[in-house]
Model the fold of this input.
Amino acid sequence: MLAILLLLGLAACQEEGKTTAGAGSPGASDSDVALNCRRELPDPPLAAENKARLTLTIADLGHEIVDGRNRYPHSRSFAEANGVPVTIYRGKVCVENGAECADACVSYRIAGGTTLVQANHHVATKADRDRITLHYWARDDGGNFHELNRVVETDGTRAAVAD
Done:
């Protein structure tokens, strides 16, 4: 459990089988978490003339065993390709085929036309075969909302990003 929480870099609390880190009150629903994270966003500074083109790339996947868990170190790159700044305000990572999740309000700022690289991240799971999901929510400076999803499939020795 600790390893998955480290990947978002936040302390977490366990409530009713779901892990929520810094995202709301105990027992908060998914929509409550989203609303709480959005509340922290400043008003968008631009008119919605252009919409950001945001992508998430998972690279450099490795494998190691740490404290009896399969740990998959990697880097995450968030790229914006339309010149519109973006704030990623929420991140959720689930392991054990969605049974265990860390959901947190975050604040990652990406300038228009640039890439934010987060090196030295990892996900960890007790399962050999697993489907790990990474889901992020963002808003660009024109007020447009975006969602990014990636799936990593593991077999106990290797991991690959699913199409």
Notes: The CA atoms of residues 51 and 144 lie 7 Å apart.
